[in-house]
Each structure stands twice: as structure tokens, then as C-alpha cells.
Amino acid sequence: MNNPLISINLVVYNEESRIRRALQSTLSQTYKNIEILVFDNASTDGTAKIVKNEFPNVKLFTADKNYSFGPGQNRAAKMTSGKYIVGMSADVVLAENFVKEMVKTMEKDEKIGALQAKILHITKAGEKTNIIDTTGFEIYRSRRVINRGHGEKDEGQYETAEEIFSYEGAVPVWRREAFFDCGVLGEAHDEDFWWMSDDIDFGWRINLFGWKNFYAPNVLAWHERQTTNKLSSSKLDFIKMRRGIRKDKKMLDILNYRLTLIKNDFGSSILKSILLFSKREVMLFIYFLFFEQYTLLAYPKMIVKIPKMLKKRSYIAKKRKKTKEEMEKWFK
Questions:
Q1: pLDDT tens across 184-193, in order?
Q2: φ, ψ (nearest 5 deg) of residue 171
């Protein structure tokens, strides 16, 4: 097996309570040809100081402002040079053989553009559990997107290595070649998005441009997710789940995912599922009208951004390699 250089790029903001745990897991890797960069988004707490004083072998870059995760990863990728990029969040802990198993998987198939690890839940106190956080995204004809397995007990039901619709953004691995190949107008992660849904958008584009999103259960990590604990299976579950999410996050989720559809989806595919799609959109709008008026701000913000998204859509349409039929196989 080759021994390529691996870049672990942590993009962080005010993570003094978790940065030690995250970095210790990167430094404990059994695979040693690694460079580690902490891209600090102008934290106002002690994050940068901890990295500088306690982790001298870790490269630290302090940004002039908070760029958020995706744009931060865009910049971090240009500061490192590994064949594979681990886009890590500070609330993630890597298994000791995470990088070793990742390299083994990626080296077997040069068309894997992004790798999705099996990610389990870790508590705020640092207790590792066997509750699944995510095994990647799956998408429905209504265009609902969910984390596969989220909230389930890990009983071996996701032990098959396989291609998936999209990776989830807690700790994705990108092939450097694919990372830059799938950029739009110079941006791998869309810098108009600011935080939410940039993983779905980028994963969708990785698919469109002829690369694979690939799930590898032998690549293991733990994630301290702050919001949902299980998938909603009823209207009551949905309401409870939404109440646990910050207002700005709820609005950005609605805004950015609809921008993702404008940029990436085939219009004729949407028309084929128009009844399911419209039903879900109307139900969501009614819910926002009565229970989340703040979220309604997503719609005028979306209208303002449509011209720019259409320009990006035109770029994507010229470069995409997958047909409508090939993409529709992902819609359940």
C-alpha cells in the first residue's frame, strides 16, 4: 500500500472545551504520514492559545474573521498538500486507525471523491456510545434528506461498504483532486451558504461530476452532535426535533437546501416528483407560518440569491457527467 501524505484540517470557532480531545485523537493515529492544521475562525475564547501552547507540532492559522466551516475548509485545503483531506470538526474524535483504514479504502478506487466514515455518538463528557450518528445522507423523491441510521443502536446493520448519495459534514474525507475538481467558480464549498447544507450541496456535486461518495464502515469516528438525537417518524417527533435547533440554524437549513436544489437538481426530475415535493414544501411552509415565523426569512433571502445560483447552475450543467437517470437512482 502507498503511504501518501494526509492533511487533517480542523476548522474551529470557540472550541476551547473540545479542541484538546479532537487534536489528541489526530495525534494518536497509527498512520503517521500526517500534517495537521487548525484553521481558527477568529475565536474569542482560548482555542488558539491552547493549540499554540499545548500542541507545538500542529500548524495554527488564525483567520481575520469567522468564515464558517465550508469556506474555512476551502482556505485550509490551499494551505496543506495531502493527497487526501480530512475535513474535521472539533466535536469529533477519531478512532486510532481512522486514517490507516481510510487510506486503505481510498487507494483501492481512484473514483472515490469523498469518503463517509461510520460515525457514532459521543457524549459531552466524552463517553463513547454505540448509537449511530450518521452513515451518510440519503435522499427521497420529495427531496427530504436524512442521516442514515441516525439515533439507531449499532447492531451491524451498516457494515456494507457502498456508494451513497452524499457524505455528511462532521468528518468527511476528500480526495484532493476531487475537492478542487468539484469547485464552482473557484469555490469547493459554496461561500454564499454560510454553514448549513454545504455538505449536501458539495456531495451532490461530487456525484454530478462523476466522482463517488463512498461509505466505509471500517473507518470509525465519534461525533458530539448538539441537536437531534433521532430521526422524526411523526409530526410530533418533527416538532420536538425542530424545537431543539437554534433559530439561525433552522433558517439557514431551509434557505441553503433550497439553493442546493436550484443549483444541482434536474428540473425534469423535480417535475416527475412534483406532487411529493409540493406536498412537503406546503406542509413545511404552513408549519413555519404558525410555529417558526423566523424561519420564513429564508424565502426572501432565497429570492435575492436566485440570480447568483442560476449562474452557478449554468456552470454545473456544463460540467456535470451524470445523467438525470443516473442521479434519480438515489431518490427513494
A1: 999 999 999 9
A2: -155, 65
**Helix (H), strand (E) at residue 81:** none
Under 8 Å CB-to-CB from 165, ≥6 apart: which residues? 136, 137, 138, 139, 203, 204, 207, 213, 330
What is the reported pTM? 0.93
Residue 235: its pLDDT value, please?
64
Cα–Cα distances (Å) from 92 to 24, 33, 148, 186, in that order, read 11, 20, 18, 28
pLDDT attached to residue 133: 96
Distances (CA, A) of 238 to 160, 231, 244, 256, 264: 29, 8, 10, 19, 26
CA distance between the termini of the chain:
37
List, in order, residues 6 or more apart from 1 with CB less than 8 Å away: 103, 104, 107
Secondary structure class of 273 (helix, strand, coil): coil
For residues 218 and 239, membership in a common domain is answered with no
Residue 61 CB neighbour total at 10 angstroms: 17
Judge contact between 242 and 228, C-beta under 8 A: no
In 3D, which of 56, 72, 46 has the Cα closest to residue 23? 56
Q: Domain range for residue 146? A: 6-223
Average pLDDT, the chain: 94
Grade residue 43 by pLDDT with cuts at 50, 70 and 90.
very high
Indicate the pLDDT class of residue 1, thresholds 50, 70 and 90.
low
DSSP at 28: T
Q: What's the CATH code of the domain at 176? A: 3.90.550.10
Query: Do the domain assignments include residue 229?
Result: no
Phi/psi for 84 (5° steps) reads -125, 140
Who has greater pLDDT, 233 or 111?
A: 111
Residue 225: pLDDT band by 50, 70, 90 thresholds? confident
> Three-state SS for 261?
helix
Position 228 in a domain:
no
Per-residue pLDDT at 237: 65
- Residue 255: CB atoms within 10 A of its CB come to 23
Same domain, 250 and 218: no
